[in-house]
Design brief:
243 residues, alpha/beta, 60s Ribosomal Protein L30, Chain: A, Alpha/beta knot, 2 domains, four-stranded mixed sheet, 9 helices, 20% strand, elongated
């Protein structure tokens, strides 16, 4: 990976300039004023961090890292508010995809690929408990993650509340839905929420959703891979809008 910076001063200055790392690795036992300044920045801005042995840092780079390596996002994240405003101004019908607890970069990449191909306006990821835009996820998306706006939000519930306030209908697609996806009106401004295969969408988000739908299946397998479910849901949305 080459999307990282290292050193106490470079990492601190990068954060202060507004560039938020995906994650910061810090050497165990590190001390000193410069370290405490950096640690305060990381903690105050809620940047994910990990205390690791120096051997792990040395595997990433043999240069003078001073006990600190920060991984930067491959692409700049967008503001959800700005994306929605641009969609409204364009006169298009909103299609936003929200992911709840998707931690596998390959699934993230595959969902992003389907979302971009179906004409979604943005992909929304929570800052915690979610895979991010990395070299691996970009590769899995066939580059789609560099072509679709990705929004990183502190709280998925707040994002859902904001979308509902904007008149965007929030629909969850999962195997335990209440009615088939093909009976849902997806031609209106829409936000689709997809959850992890093991836990699904969180209960709090379900309580805020306007509808929960499922994809009918005939086989005995319990559920679809989340990226396949995303493709079915998004292209049913596109089909209805083109009808």
């Amino acid at each position: 990976m080459d999307n990282f910076i290292f050193g106490l001063h470079p990492v601190s200055e990068s954060i202060e300039s507004g560039k938020t790392p995906e994650k910061v690795l810090m050497q165990k036992g590190l001390q000193g004023d410069h370290f405490h300044r950096l640690f305060s920045l990381v903690r105050d801005r809620k940047i994910p961090f990990q205390m690791v042995p120096v051997e792990r840092l040395n595997k990433i780079t043999r240069q003078n890292h001073q006990g600190v390596i920060a991984f930067l996002p491959v692409t700049e994240y967008h503001s959800l508010e700005d994306v929605v405003s641009e969609v409204v101004d364009s006169g298009e019908t909103a299609l936003i995809v929200l992911l709840d607890g998707i931690t596998d970069v390959r699934n993230l990449g595959a969902v992003a690929r389907s979302a971009e191909c179906a004409g979604a306006h943005a992909l929304v990821l929570p800052e915690k408990g979610s895979a991010g835009v990395t070299a691996d996820s970009v590769k899995a998306s066939a580059g789609a993650l560099l072509r679709i706006p990705v929004c990183r939000v502190p709280n998925l519930l707040q994002a859902v509340a904001f979308l509902k306030e904007c008149g965007i209908r929030v629909v969850i697609s999962e195997s335990r839905g209440r009615h088939p996806i093909y009976k849902e009106d997806l031609a209106k401004p829409l936000a689709v929420v997809l959850g992890s295969e093991d836990r699904g969408v969180s209960k709090a988000v379900k309580q805020m959703a306007d509808s929960i739908v499922y994809i009918p299946m005939k086989g005995k397998t319990g559920s679809l891979n989340v990226s396949v479910a995303a493709g079915v849901t998004l292209f049913e949305t596109l089909r209805q809008r083109l009808a």
